[in-house]
TrEMBL record:
Keywords: Carbohydrate metabolism, Chitin degradation, Chitin-binding, Disulfide bond, Glycosidase, Hydrolase, Polysaccharide degradation, Signal, Virulence. Residues 1-17 form the signal peptide. GO terms for cellular component: extracellular region. Gene3D superfamilies: Endochitinase-like, Glycosidases. Residues 401-424 are annotated as: Disordered. It comes from Penicillium bovifimosum. This is chitinase. The keyword Disulfide bond applies. The keyword Disulfide bond applies. Belongs to the glycosyl hydrolase 18 family. GO terms for biological process: chitin catabolic process; polysaccharide catabolic process.
Length: 424
């Protein structure tokens, strides 16, 4: 009954302004802005609480007190806590196994929310069914049961936390949609208020060629996949990345001429029992590492100068003195190129064989026009506030997008949890 009420309210709010969800991660808190710069953020999500904390207890101390965090936003902003995050699945796997473990875990989370005064919880399980950081140690074959237990886990969470907000962070890459089957997806969406679509990191170090990690076209493809699985567009929050990514490319590929779709280097881990190089060559193709004290450059040669030991240096095959990524990033910002078709900004640093991919304010504006407005999505989401530029250019671009492309709405009433009779 609760979810029927919630979705009914969501439908009634189709004329309301698009909601804005912002993650605040514990690793980037030094230069967080104050409430004078965070206008329009409806939900602030602190990350993360470890997933194992709630298998047998409810104790958790956030990286910043909830009262202090609330002061960074409008009094109407809802404060949530995210559980899990990349590489943290062990607690979820254990919790989802049985009815008793699901109920115990959910009740512990509910107690934690009450104790800290959080308005809701975001389940950031990456990913139910497998393909997580531990895919080599725990292959997907060990996690098949999670395809069926994930919806049951969310159902238990929904029941335990009552009218508090329940959201989930979901994968952006289709190959990670393991638990999001045609059969299970409706059950997943039924239990949650919001779906935070991680439409970034669409290219990672398991891929073989370069591409946009958060491009317009890739983000649109991800949204279309969820809509095809039965997600209500009003539930979906399109994800935006406030960071750039870089990849080392294959030095033998012609990336200078064709940076997009160029072969990535060293996607595989280094072989075991590597021998020292006898001819100055190193890396996966050479099957050798550099002698002690020497660095393996991105081009696959041993040496001791900055050319070998900084940007793109291969730490699996020799010593690295500290990658001068900052210098390469400065060049990327100055000379970056726009791919209008894919909808992303990129740069190839040919001196260091590095490929950069990121969003610009112009690409953010396109996403509002071509995805959020066109697909009538309920909201937007960003990871993460502390990773934005010192001028908060991405935040400002999203604030502008919300004003320019959201449906016009009357003045906002004080925010209340989804599922009550108030606005959210």
């Amino acid at each position: 009954m609760f979810k029927r009420l919630a979705f009914g309210l969501l439908a009634l709010q189709s004329v309301a302004a698009t909601r804005f969800v912002m993650y605040i991660d514990e690793w980037h808190v030094t230069d967080l802005p104050g409430s004078d710069k965070t206008e329009g953020i409806d939900y602030a999500v602190m990350g993360f609480a470890p997933s194992k904390n709630f298998n047998s207890g409810s104790s958790f101390t956030p990286f910043e007190s909830p009262n202090s965090m609330r002061k960074r936003f409008s009094p109407d902003t809802k404060l949530m806590i995210a559980i899990g995050g990349w590489g943290d699945t062990e607690g979820f796997t254990e919790a989802a196994k049985t009815e008793a473990s699901r109920e115990r875990y959910a009740k512990n989370v509910a107690s934690m929310l009450d104790a800290n005064g959080f308005d809701g919880v975001d389940i950031d399980w990456e990913y139910p069914g497998g393909n997580g950081q531990d895919y080599k140690q725990h292959p997907n074959s060990e996690k098949v049961d999670e395809i069926e237990t994930y919806p049951l886990f969310l159902e238990a969470m929904r029941k335990a936390i009552g009218d508090k907000i329940l959201s989930i962070a979901v994968p952006g890459r289709k190959q990670d949609f393991i638990a999001f089957t045609k059969e299970q997806s409706p059950k997943i969406f039924k239990s949650v208020d919001m779906v935070n679509v991680m439409s970034y990191d669409l290219i990672n170090r398991r891929d073989n060629v370069t591409g946009h990690h958060s491009g317009v076209q890739g983000s649109l493809n991800t949204v279309n996949e969820y809509l095809a699985l039965g997600a209500d567009p009003e539930q979906l929050n399109l994800g935006f990345a406030y960071y750039a990514k870089w990849f080392t490319t294959d030095p033998d590929s012609d990336c200078d001429e064709n940076p997009l779709g160029c072969k990535l280097a060293h996607c595989r881990g280094s072989p075991k029992n590597l021998k020292d190089s006898s001819n100055g060559q190193c890396g996966f193709a050479a099957g050798a590492k550099c002698p002690s004290g020497q660095c393996c450059s991105s081009s696959g040669y041993c040496g001791t100068t900055d050319e070998f030991c900084q940007a793109g240096c291969l730490s699996d095959y020799g010593t690295c003195k500290g990658v001068s990524i900052t210098a390469s990033w400065r060049k990327a910002q100055q000379d970056g190129k726009t791919d209008d078709k894919g909808g992303g900004q990129y740069y190839f640093d040919k001196e260091n064989n590095l490929f950069w991919t990121w969003d610009t304010p112009e690409m953010i504006d396109r996403k509002f026009k071509e995805i959020v407005a066109e697909k009538k999505l309920g909201g937007v989401m960003a990871w993460s506030l502390g990773e934005d530029t010192y001028k908060f250019e991405h935040l400002q671009a999203m604030q502008k997008g919300l004003k320019s492309h959201s449906p016009k709405a009357p003045a906002k009433a004080p925010a209340k949890p989804i599922g009550t009779c108030g606005k959210h």
